[in-house]
User: Fold these one by one.
Assistant:
Number 1:
Amino acid sequence: MFDKLKVFTGNSNPQLAEEICQYLHLPLSQVMVRRFSDGEVFVEVGENVRGADVFVIQSTSPPVNDHLMELLIMVDAFRRSSARRITAVIPYYGYARQDRKVAPRVPITAKLVADLISVAGAGRVLCLDLHAGQIGGFFNIPVDHLFAAPVVLDYLRTHIEGDTVIVSPDAGGVERARAIATRLQCGLAIIDKRREKANVAQAMHIIGDVEGKLAVVLDDMIDTAGTLTEAARALIENGARKVWACASHAVLSGPAMARLKESPISRVVVTNTIPLADQPVGESKIISLSVARLLGEAIRRIHMEDSVSSLFV
């Protein structure tokens, strides 16, 4: 059944690729990705891929440009090696926040990256929790956009206790938060944040009842964790019993780890789309959930030409 299915990975998240292959009961295919002394990326495919259905697992996570170039060069190598179809599996899509013009004379880099992946030779893209849904339309090839909601929901259903409210950190995340709140049959709250003027701390107003409840702040990614930790403090000040944070992508750049450690957030639930730096056992608030089964099942269905629509929860 999987004679022509081959799964490869770059250096961004080899552990996730191994877990996906374990789910598929396949060995991880061989590719050498290294650098010359000047930093150029060199790729050599270690096995025959002629006529194969190739899946390249590579998050464009930090260092973003290095991992993006690895992806592009690997896709080009497989195209030149006569692979039948190349699917770029991108658990975390970097540059996704540059998805529109927010000021004059600025780029739409999410579209540029989509063009690069298509021109390199990818025939399909599989991604998880894009920052903005319209990014799927930036591609001129099929895009399967999955969501980590089923994985997060399974965790929350078995761990939350007492009255709970799902909190959207901004107006843009209300739809995501409402979907989770509906499935958990709990309340919904929204944080209205306003910056009075430049370089002045933003005022946080809570819309909804959080008094005495477990407040779960839901977002697509945690980058520097500045807004998230401010939101957590506002929730505690408004009477929340406890604050958790849930996000699909743990970018955790710059001061993020220090901010989370010092914040009133008691638990941070993320997925393994981006590998976490090693944390001392028992000292980290961060819990990482695996999306290997979700991505592995999507890969199996794409290869078998089955429907993946039931995975779009």
Number 2:
Amino acid sequence: MLIFEIIMVAMAAIRANVLRAVLTTLGIIIGVAAVIAVVALGQGAQRRVEAQIQSMGTNVLTIRPNWGHFGGVRNVAQRLYVRDADALKRESNGLLTVSPVASSGQQVTYSRWNAHAEIYGVWPEYFAIHDHHLALGRYFTEGELQGRRRVAVLGANVLSNLAGQDSAALTPESILGQTIQIRGVPFVVIGILKAKGESGFQGPDEDIFVPTSTALYRLFGGRERLSSIEVSTFSPKEQEQAYAQIDQIMRRQHRLRPGDDADFQVFNAAQMMSTFNETNKTLTYLLAGIAGISLLVGGIGIMNIMLVSVTERTREIGVRKALGATRQNIMFQFLVESLALCVLGGVLGVGVGFLAAHLMTTFAQWQTYVAPYAVFTALGFSAGVGLFFGMWPARRAARLDPIEALRYE
């Protein structure tokens, strides 16, 4: 038989039992759709975080306290101080822009409204480090930092969080120059930032920024411990030199001897992106693997229905062999049927996966991205399932004795 004729016979056999073919491919459809949707969700999350980290600046370095050991347990946090930031600013040969960061959640009130917000004590340089821009007003100055002045710069969404459903009554223009209460301490609002969007690592739109000195001594109970020290270089090219200077200055500040473990850690955006991507890949592969089990289950269903088909068409196989069809012809025919069922299920599954990704974006507001490699991988895997699970039924059909097949009732 010609290859084209074999393919047409296989397609005719599938068309003769359309409903059974659709039900048979249901496992493949569900498996491929699940793989497409899961990978789309993972890719969307990765792209979103990459964009957010890029907006934070690839030349930003974050110094955080390391963890010490007490009684063999890794649970004692080391400390960073304002004097560490002073030393970095003073001794870094002008390479770094520096700002200490002290943060704590506090209750904020204004008139009849109140809300909980994260308060950041920072230097004026912090806004340049993270590329924040003003919508109204101004930043606080070095003089206000030194004088521990009670001034505040609000993130773009602070007012809407504060007023809630009554946000129309509280506008940026109306609160600029007014006094808000942070933990009962009055602060004058001198500036409001432009919206920057959410981030997986910080949410500047919901935060309030005040001078570090004011935050430490008027809001945080006089403690000197910092959450982190933010520094930036002129460009990512200077980061290697910046790492060396930070390590040298911080070790001298903390009186660490050569060979001692550092009691601080330095992170940059690229490291955070790499860490997130590795975690995201692991979760995506895990979920895609779980979804892939459905493909295997669908493959078993394909094999089962193909075995039934071989039994039902035993006389037909006998007739074809009597007319000259070889074992290879019969085997190829049943492999084509199995492959066609799985590829059809794969195509339908891709369509369902696209629909699921669209619904997640529309209704759940989750960013998704259907990567081309995910589509081709899912289709290739479904075709492989068809070939693998169709092999045994095809071999069984090919090995039938034509005389016994013609006698089959």
Number 3:
Amino acid sequence: MAKTLSKAPDMLERARAIHADLSAVRRAIHARPELSFQERETALMVAAAMKELGYEVSQNIGGEGVVAQRGEGRTIAIRADMDALPIQEADNGVYRSQTKGVMHACGHDVHTSCALGAARLLASLFEEGAIGGRIRFLFQPAEETINEEGKSGAVLMLEEGAIENVDALIGLHVDPKLPAGKIAVRQGALLAACDSFNITVRGRSCHGAQPEQGIDAIILASQIVQSLQTVISRRKSPLQPAVLTIGGIKSATYRPNVVAAEVELTGTLRYFDQSVHDMALQEINNICSIASVFGGSFELDYVHDTPALYNDEAICALVSSVGRQLLGTENVVNIDPQLGADDFSHFTAHVPSCYLVLGACIEESPRDLHTPTFDIDEAALPVGAAILAQTALAFLDPR
């Protein structure tokens, strides 16, 4: 693998020179967020920008995905997700979301802006003849959810050949708790596998004054919710990281004097070891049978959304080396495994990859992902663009 060169251009200096432009792009995307599988305007903007930079562009890959590339030969790809979340944004100033009930609460606006910034930095080097190889950009739709067939944007792009002939892949995710100017890298297991499930618990409705005439689905569902926690606390080794969360409960009826006939539960299971998945699925089925014991019934809809994300040792070493070169050794840190998930993991199963973490903390007011107040320190933008561009350049060994 090519090593970073001491004579390589100072990408961070170049990136900081276009900081205002990166900020403008990020704010424009942030103000007009689009949900998974609906990223049409974002994709059109991305495609137009990449064409203007001289990249060969393919659109509507895996839905609204955009693939753009330039050069020939050995290939490294850069991935950025584009979709937003169904969250109503709090007042974040002039660039707050203009779409009711939708916001970029996970930083995908940042990821897309960093990738566009990297594309701009690299385009000038292509013009100078300084890059020997091919760089491909994957602007991915639908990272946050899956379609009716259980497929996310990464899976759909894979099926359409987005990473064919790719030798390495990098991507990043902002961390609103890590200081801006730092990156975090981890070899091996980084993010957990993610399963989602819905449980429909059925009883028999009746008047609340005569509960003996019905079968209370809320009581059955409550017992199931409590018992599900024993899957983690009593059915697996405490040495195996895993978490099971029930994120929602919904009754078919919502009246004070009606015994509910049906309740829906929705939840997620996160883990690294496949044996935990196998055990948990069996145990969830067993626990749901509580409903049958008391005269009701249940239906379990269980979906394996994403596998665990494993970073490649050599690509991570390259990213860390680039980070130390650009940011200083003290600003490249290790990170512990996380029980969050990202469908980037589907790519890592096929090509050596590194998914790095980009610091973006607003020090005076730290934020959280997936919340109405999420925001970043935009000093992270040139750092992200520079890391992506310099890593691609180092991997291809510039002439």
Number 4:
Amino acid sequence: MITVAVQDRTGKEVGSLTVDEATFGGCVRYALLKQALVMYHANKHIGTAATKSRGMVEGSTRKLYKQKGTGNARAGNARTCVRKGGGVCFAKDPRSTRKDMPKQQRKLAMNSAILAKLQSGNVIIIDDLKMNQPKTKDFTAVLNNLKIDRSCLVTISDFDSNIYLSTRNVPKIDVLKVDQLNAGDICNKQKMLFTRQAFESLLNVEN
């Protein structure tokens, strides 16, 4: 069992939640987690790099001069890769590097990522994070009270435009709804900040 303190906006402990490790798979599946991270990184790659091969470069295919008798090195047409303005050897083509994983494996990888954060003490639960208006200064004050001074993934239960607008100028802070969590975003941040409602809904979904 893992006990996580619940804090208010000032950093004062107002309760606690007990989490059974079996809820998140019982152990961290490192091989599956690595597979998921490779997939998420590969899927972020755009793969639009492209260069022109000698067949794509505009110009004549005529041999520049005869093969022998000129005293020059033998040469073909002007579109060869060794000449200025010619094509590129082994030209790049647009390609997709996308990978895929079964839905169940992605869920297990996400559970392993959350469990790893819980075991290392990098999960923080706040009782309430609602904001009356978008205010970056107020949000950074909450982060300072909770002693979050590194990258953090803020997880909320429902969409809240005030929270999104308050965090968009804070470096290394991302906001996701609890149903959008994935292993890639979790592992990309040092800490996780859950609202109590979001964490409880996550436990209910897992159960």
